[in-house]
Every structure is written in structure tokens, then in C-alpha cells.
Write a structure and sequence with these properties.
CATH superfamily: Ferritin, core subunit, four-helix bundle
Number of helices: 5
Radius of gyration: 17 Å
Bound molecules: MU-OXO-diiron
Number of domains: 1
Order of helices and strands: HHHHH
CATH class: Mainly Alpha
Largest sheet: none
Number of strands: 0
CATH architecture: Up-down Bundle
């Protein structure tokens, strides 16, 4: 059985993952309107992954006798300036999510909830991969600079990353 403290903290994470999915969906849509097919496919897939992260939490909360709550979300930005800015935002977002996961791990230890602590280890590993992936993409974008043909190749190459870190 989940304590009220753990249940609230996990439900907060449900909202964070759902919000992440919305932000990446908006990035996918924006990239699609810019004609970048590969980047938009990548972002649609990222959005699906975040929904999967959310669903995993929902199932866990309910399996442990709690009640996973679906709450309202903030509207994400609609425009992202440039690809560099968009991927910088993705990276910053993932770093922030890692911080929330670390806080959750901390709470699970304080509450002596070892089942939740064990469950959260999957998210700890996932965040390491997501941060590394976002950092690699940013490095590539910095290398490309303003080279238009570089962006064309990048848009094609990024398709190879789709699903690379999903389990
Ligand atoms: Fe589910 Fe990318 O954090």
C-alpha cells in the first residue's frame, strides 16, 4: 500500500510526464510545419515515449492500491525559434525531469518504500539515456552551424535514433 506522501509524489510525476509528452508533441508539430520530416518523426516518437513513462506510473500507482490521477496540463509553447533552441529546450527539460526523479527517489527512501524505490530505478536509467541523447544531438547541431546541407543530412540521420532508447 502506498503512503499518502508517496502517492502524491508519484501523481505529481504522472503530470510531469504527461506535460513532457505535450511539449514534445508541440515540437513535433512545429518541426513538421518547417518541413523537417526526420526531426518531426523523432519528436512524435519522443512524445509517445513520455506517454509510456506516464502510463507506467499510472499502472504502478493503481497496482499498489493507490489512485492514479489524471490532471489538467499547461499549454506548451507553439513556436521554438530554431532547431538549436528547440533541442536546447529538450535537453533542459530532460535535466529538470532527472531532478524530479531524484527527488522522488529521495522521498521513497525517507518513506522506507523500497518497492517504489526499486520501481524508480528504471526512470533513473532512462533519464541518463535521454540526457545523453539530447546532449549528442546538441553537439551535432553545433557542428552543423548554419550549413543548410548539414541540416538536410541531420534531418535524415535523426530518424535512426527513433526508438533507440525505448524499451
Ligand atoms: Fe519521461 Fe523524458 O522524461
Amino acid at each position: 500500500m502506498l503512503s499518502a506522501v508517496i502517492q502524491d509524489a508519484l501523481n505529481n510525476q504522472v503530470t510531469i510526464e504527461a506535460q513532457s509528452s505535450q511539449v514534445y508533441l508541440s515540437m513535433a508539430s512545429w518541426a513538421e510545419t518547417q518541413g523537417f520530416e526526420g526531426v518531426s518523426q523523432f519528436m512524435y516518437a519522443q512524445s509517445d515515449e513520455e506517454r509510456m513513462h506516464m502510463l507506467k506510473l499510472v499502472k504502478f500507482i493503481n497496482e499498489r492500491g493507490g489512485h492514479a490521477k489524471v490532471s489538467s496540463l499547461k499549454a506548451p509553447p507553439l513556436e521554438f525559434g530554431s532547431f538549436k533552441e528547440m533541442f536546447q529546450e529538450l535537453f533542459n527539460h530532460e535535466v529538470a525531469v532527472s531532478g524530479y526523479i531524484n527527488d522522488l527517489v529521495d522521498i521513497s527512501l525517507k518513506e522506507k518504500d523500497y518497492a517504489t524505490h526499486n520501481f524508480l530505478q528504471w526512470y533513473v536509467s532512462e533519464q541518463i539515456e535521454e540526457e545523453a541523447q539530447a546532449r549528442n544531438i546538441l553537439d551535432k547541431i553545433n557542428l552543423i552551424g548554419d550549413d543548410k546541407s548539414g541540416f538536410y543530412l541531420f534531418d535524415n540521420d535523426i530518424k535512426q535514433l527513433i526508438g533507440a532508447d525505448s524499451k
